[in-house]
Amino acid sequence: MMRSPTPLQFAAAALAMAAVVLASNILVQFPLNDWLTWGAITYPVAFLVSELVNRAHGPQQARRVAWVGFGVAVAASLVLAPARIAIASGAAFLLSQWLDIAVFDRLRHGVWWRAPLVATLLAAMLDTAVFWSIAFGGTSDPWITWALGDLAVKLGLGVALLLPFRLLIGSRLASPRRTA
């Protein structure tokens, strides 16, 4: 049986999630070029946070962190980012986090890298499709090229974040426990 996070662990994970989503909602408004915005670089860390919580404490705790992170980030985003971006972010975040958590939990007993890699890649594709079509669909912005650039970066970072995942989870990778 997995242990529940301490209140401090839960608060740290929820705060990390909220900070990543808020930063990404602000940074997505600043293009690097015709293919990419700054938000693409920060957002994949949200998947890392939920996967670390999922591995250590199970899918129920990962969903709790996602809900708290979602609430804080959307509330702050409504103040600091345009409403369309906040709404798109909220929808994409919830759908992609639920997918990430479910896929990760389903694959958690395989080779250590399979669950975070497959979960992140599938969730990144869903997140990209939902976010960009809601946030920028129908505008004159080059949102399709931004979405493609965003997806490429998310997929690349999904692979790159396997190393921090492995290092941060440590010995728990050798014998992940399942909740009853």
Number of DSSP strands?
Answer: 2
Rounded to the nearest angstrom, the distance between the terminal CA atoms is: 6 Å
Share of helical residues:
over 70%
Spans where pLDDT lies below 50 across 5 or more residues? 173-180
The secondary structure category is mainly alpha
Query: Which of globular, elongated, flat, extended, rod-shaped describes the shape?
Result: globular
**N-to-C order of helices and strands:** HEEHHHHHHH
Counting copies of identical and different chains, the oligomeric state is single chain
Helix count, DSSP H or I runs of 4 or more residues: 8
Side-by-side strand order of the widest sheet: 1-2
Features:
two-stranded antiparallel sheet, mainly alpha, 8 helices
Structure in words:
The chain has 180 residues and is mainly alpha-helical. Helix content is 75%, strand content 3%. The protein contains eight helices and two strands, in the order H-E-E-H-H-H-H-H-H-H. Strands 1-2 form a two-stranded antiparallel sheet. The N and C termini lie close together (6 Å). Residues 173-180 have low confidence and may be disordered.
Compact overview of the structure:
Helices cover 75% and strands 3% of the residues. The chain has 180 residues and is an all-alpha fold. The N and C termini lie close together (6 Å).
Walk me through the topology.
Blueprint: H1 7-27, E1 31-33, E2 36-37, H2 39-42, H3 44-57, H4 59-80, H5 83-107, H6 114-136, H7 143-160, H8 162-169
Helix pairs in contact: 1-3, 1-4, 3-4, 3-5, 3-6, 3-8, 4-5, 5-6, 6-7
